[in-house]
Amino acid sequence: MTVNSTALPQNQRPPEPHETAESVLNLAAQLRWDVGGEFHEHLMEAIYTDAARIADRAVSYPEKPARFDMDRTIDNLVTSRIWGFPLMLLMLTVVFWITISGANYPSQFLGGILLDTVHQFLKNLAVIVGLPWWLSGLLIDGMYLATAWVVSVMLPPMAIFFPMFTLLEDFGYLPRVAFNLDNFFKKAGAHGKQALSMSMGFGCNAAGVIATRIIDSPRERLIAIITNNFAVCNGRWPTQILIATIFIGGMVSAQWAGFISALAVVSIALLGVLFSFVVSWGLSRSMLKGEVSTFSLELPPYRPPRIWQTIYTSVIDRTLIVLWRAVVFAMPAGAVIWLVSNIQLGGLSLAEYFINWTNPFGLLLGLNGIILLAYIVAIPANEIVIPTVLMLTALVLGAGGAGAGVMFDPNSLADTEALLRAGGWTLLTGVNLMLFSLLHNPCSTTIYTIFKETGSLKWTLVSTFLPIGMGFGLTFVVAQVWRLLAG
Description:
Layout: H1 17-34, H2 39-58, H3 70-78, H4 84-129, H5 133-171, H6 174-187, H7 194-201, H8 205-211, H9 218-227, H10 237-248, H11 254-284, H12 307-342, E1 344-345, E2 348-349, H13 350-364, H14 369-377, H15 385-397, H16 413-422, H17 427-438, H18 444-454, H19 457-486
Antiparallel strand pairs: 1-2
Helix pairs in contact: 4-5, 4-11, 5-12, 6-7, 7-8, 8-18, 9-11, 9-19, 10-11, 10-17, 12-15, 13-14, 14-15, 15-16, 17-19, 18-19
């Protein structure tokens, strides 16, 4: 005999499967709030307490005098509430100071070879072969010079910075950074593991976005993805280092220039971390509101870095790969820059039309139209911002000769500074370019990675336009306050 359950009273018929699942989920959501925000911490603390008590009962330890524990001694310093952050800032400053001071001479040496000797050889060869002026300009003055400038500017600092950063990673210091930042991310409504994905973002934002997979909570992972662009990636380090060296380090004597420039770059990096906290806090209390989850982080033991293996790995896996990516994007970008600089309408090139059109808006932000055009061209890769700026500045000043947009080929840092100063650059322009380099849209690779990881056009657009909106707002405020105080 079959009984029709729909004919039974509501309190007697068995619940439908979807009703059971829904009630369980509702109950779970209610209990998550009832247990309080400290439940996970208390649970982990209880587990470790029980584990320690069981170990004390089951394990016998030989009676030996207490010996010096190097790991614990170092951790007492680098994870200290008092000394942890000062030591972290000091370490970052030293790394950037070594990078800035050590990269100047190799950059000048490579620039002299690639931008002067080789460039002139290729120009003479083009004349001998009989290449048309437009083909010679496209291949040599556009594609080659853009690539050569990227190599001469990026290779020396990356060859210094990446090995030192990898040594800190191999030594076991980066998990301590995550440990120090965990409490701040928790207060910002984000996950403590975001510190690890942010650290990856300092190498590459696309890699940082992929690294957010270690975060289990979808809400907190989305916050980490959106804010990862605030970590200054390797493509933006050359811009930060060059501008800081010219406009910040140039304000002091030569013996202090490297240190002051390093402080300026560290300040920009820390400002990016601050924006990560602020935006995470705002998102967790508005569009992505929810409960903060916690995690347990087991600090690995310190290991003596394998110096030669680390150098080899960092050069092959980071420096050369990043440099190759920059070269791949620099060559077509150089061609585009040369074309828009030489295709003329009504006596002006396409680049000049855009620069003149956007220059009032750029000046309002403490920038200029050249910088705005450079960041549009550099959407495929941030590495080509400075080469684009120099080529367009040379075009506007007529440095390439009448009717020829030729990339400026600086043989020294002084030549680069002279060109930018002649283009109307001031200290305000340099400072706001460093700020805008921090706060602007991600590169095309990162944008595509965000879309693949989130599967959402909405969050991809938010991740793309939120930082650039913040960049416009911050540079506008800085420019107006600067001019108000200067006037």
